Amino acid sequence: MRPYLLLIPASLFCAMPAVSDELPQRKAGLWEIKMMMGGRELPFRNIQQCTDAETDASMSANLGGVMGSDCAKPRISNSGGTITVDSTCKIGAGTTSTRAVITGDFNSAYTIAVTPMPAAGAATAGSGTQPPMTMQAKWIGPCLEGQRPGDIIMPGGIKLNIRSLAIGSGAPPRR
Question: How is residue 16 annotated by DSSP?
Answer without folding.
Answer: G
